[in-house]
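A note from the maintainers: we've had questions about how concatenated examples are separated. There is no special marker in the raw files; a new sequence line simply starts the next protein. For clarity in this README we add a label.
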Amino acid sequence: MKRLYETILTEGTVINDNVLKVDSFLNHGINPHLMKEIGEEFADRFKGENITKILTLESSGIAPALMTSLVLGCELVFARKRQSLTMIDNLISTTVESYTKKQKNTISVSGDLIKPNDSLLIIDDFLANGQAAKGLIDIAQQAGSSIVGIGIVIEKSFQPGRDELEKQGIRVESLARIASLTNNQVQFEEKTCL
């Protein structure tokens, strides 16, 4: 994922010691060629796992999850942060706190879309404290689905998210692991990817 690392360095903006802005290619604007490579990488890392569906959270998780689902040939379901008029029956819901927005959201998935016989891969854009991932895990568990693992585009490894997920026995695969954002500099954990 050399291209991902290079894009983070050239297009990412360090806001403070805890926040990295990647709006130009992941969180607001989407670089489709990079997303295609990300989908291929996740598919490669989780090949042979008999994944039936990918579960993500709107909105920033959708692009990498969609590309991964295309490569794996499976369906994609995303948890909604706002309930629409059509989402009225058989909802599976939980509450998550956004690290960057400092607010709680109820997220929901129709129980018609994920089933107990599903084998889910969870994909998300960032891993910081693990709240979004925990929320998606909760939804999967409420549905009775099994969880193959979690694919993260960018992990801030200096925050406790990975530890929280691994304590639950969940496999975590991150494409870029950031060790530090101090002094307005992105420092990667894995230097060999540059």
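[label: protein 2]
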Amino acid sequence: MNICVFLSAADLDDRYTVPAREFAELLGRGGHTLVWGGSESGLMKVVADGVQESGGRLVGVSVDFLAAKARTNADEMVIAKDLAERKALLLEKSDAIVIMVGGTGTLDEATEILELKKHGKHTKPVVLLNTAGFYDGLRQQFQRMEDEGFLPLPPTELVFFAKDAVGALAYLEESAGLL
């Protein structure tokens, strides 16, 4: 399965890198392909290293202004002209999406993917890996959106909140009929 992961390129502490590395190793050992932003820095590097060292493939989609930071030994690397094209290519090349911890770029990617799913533009499973409760506030906001009539369907039909790497991958494999 080609699993797109949206995540930070920042250098982060162990409470974020250890679970990310665990997910990456599970992905690689499971024979899956990582589809990611292609960066060779921060948490993106941690995940790419873990997947590659565990036997998985790497498909990167970088963007023109970040091409100098792209991983050189990925199995495939595409350079998009802008962020909009990058997001479209990441979605196109993936069978499922995992959202890990990140900043505004990750949040932008997550909301676009969820909006597209809400409108039926894709049916791919989406998982928020809620490491160290990072997305607790977002979960609460989704519930408020539903309670106050802003969502046409329950948040559970848009995204699965996983507390750990094992739960995230199990949900994706079950969604894909691999379990």
